[in-house]
């Protein structure tokens, strides 16, 4: 890996970089949940069924899966901050176009463009963080970055529903587009802080297709997919599964999901400290995910009262979030020089794959009267992530001793 020419900044500079990148990550996850809170209003406006209403989301996911790796290559070869800014601006424009669309076809096309914008965030953001943040603070940076994404997803439903109730769904989307434009202006003000390469000559090792698609990188892609599928099962099916399996009131089920997500978000922040203090990130993954899987198995096998259910879901969520910064540092350790954008584009494609597969697994379980199986399959996906994290790992990944810069 090349010389670490991007380092030497103060804590304040590092904090500024993390804040800028995390602001854009907040927007990206806010946009991911742009349509679901507005389903009923959009359905009434265009007079379409719920199945048809899934087409914009399908277009978003499909474009992301197909184009994220090429966009990651662009971040490596050209400029991560340039790709980052273009993604933010294109996303804001796509959301505005969706708000102004006069036909449902136009809405689907706009969400396809939003999927293209979405391909920029993860590969560009992780490359910028790897290059700009001091190695000893990289785990914290990853945790705050991940936290900001969860925060964006958590804020979207309430804000969008409120705006739609006051001004209509189109104005709600226009306000969301304005959010992206404002954050783009903030990034422009901090433009020098986001540089991801140096004019200094740097010698790097080759990073051709064989090294990019290494066994370690492919394993991490499936780790991301397993974690995405498990979280999709919890978020999308817990309420109905608890109702069918144990007769749990809808309010109690919704509270359990909220408990899981809130503690997961808190766990991400704590996980930044854990990742920096425990160099065996694979064992951190195994321990945290093992506890999370155990909690979900208990939900599938035993009936709890509402209070105990909150506790079990809180444990499952916290221990799941705890491992995410360590997960990101495992990917960093597997990344060849000059390939951070491409590698993170590959592994984060697992998010889209996991979310695309989940409905075809959990939906049939509900249709065939096996609601408790939802929690057991969620646990199985989580255990799959553990196995994939441990396979082939003979040595602990390097931490601060290894250069964190990715330079060309």
Automatic annotation (TrEMBL):
Iron-sulfur found in the keyword field: no
Domain Major facilitator superfamily (MFS) profile, first and last residues per copy: 17-397
Entries under InterPro entries matching the protein: MFS, MFS_dom, MFS_trans_sf
Stretch forming the signal peptide: none
Protein name as it appears in the record: Putative MFS family arabinose efflux permease
Domain of life (superkingdom): Bacteria
One GO location term (cellular component): plasma membrane
GO molecular function, one term: transmembrane transporter activity
Keyword presence, Membrane: yes
Source organism per UniProt: Aquabacter spiritensis
């Amino acid at each position: 890996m090349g010389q670490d020419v991007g380092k030497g900044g103060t804590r304040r500079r590092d904090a500024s970089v993390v804040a800028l990148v995390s602001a854009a990550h907040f927007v990206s996850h806010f946009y991911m949940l742009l349509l679901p809170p507005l389903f009923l209003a959009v359905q009434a406006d265009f007079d379409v069924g719920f199945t048809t209403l899934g087409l914009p989301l399908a277009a978003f996911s499909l474009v992301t899966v197909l184009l994220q790796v090429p966009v990651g290559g662009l971040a490596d070869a050209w400029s991560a901050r340039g790709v980052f800014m273009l993604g933010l601006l294109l996303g804001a424009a796509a959301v505005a176009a969706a708000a102004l669309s006069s036909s449902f076809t136009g809405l689907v096309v706009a969400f396809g463009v939003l999927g293209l914008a979405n391909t920029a965030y993860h590969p560009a953001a992780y490359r910028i963080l790897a290059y700009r943040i001091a190695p000893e603070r990289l785990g914290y940076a990853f945790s705050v970055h991940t936290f900001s994404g969860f925060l964006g997803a958590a804020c979207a439903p309430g804000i969008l529903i409120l705006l739609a109730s006051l001004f209509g769904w189109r104005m709600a989307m226009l306000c969301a587009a304005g959010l992206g434009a404002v954050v783009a202006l903030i990034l422009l003000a901090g433009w020098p802080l986001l540089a991801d390469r140096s004019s200094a000559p740097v010698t790097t090792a080759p990073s051709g297709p064989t090294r990019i698609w290494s066994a370690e990188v492919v394993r991490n892609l499936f780790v991301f997919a397993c974690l995405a599928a498990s979280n999709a099962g919890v978020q999308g099916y817990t309420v109905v599964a608890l109702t069918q399996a144990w007769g749990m009131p809808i309010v109690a089920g919704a509270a359990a999901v909220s408990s899981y997500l809130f503690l997961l978000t808190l766990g991400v922040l704590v996980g930044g400290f854990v990742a920096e203090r425990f160099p065996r990130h694979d064992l951190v993954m195994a321990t945290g995910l093992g506890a999370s899987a155990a909690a979900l198995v208990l939900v599938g096998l035993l009936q709890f009262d509402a209070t105990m259910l909150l506790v079990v879901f809180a444990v499952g969520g916290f221990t799941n979030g705890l491992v995410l910064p360590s997960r990101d540092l495992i990917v960093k350790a597997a990344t060849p020089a000059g390939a951070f954008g491409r590698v993170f584009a590959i592994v984060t494609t697992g998010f889209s794959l996991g979310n695309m597969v989940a409905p075809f697994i959990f939906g049939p379980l509900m249709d065939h009267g096996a609601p408790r199986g939802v929690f057991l399959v969620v646990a199985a996906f989580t255990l799959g992530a553990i196995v994939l994290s441990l396979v082939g790992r003979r040595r602990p990944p390097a931490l601060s001793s290894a250069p964190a810069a990715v330079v060309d």
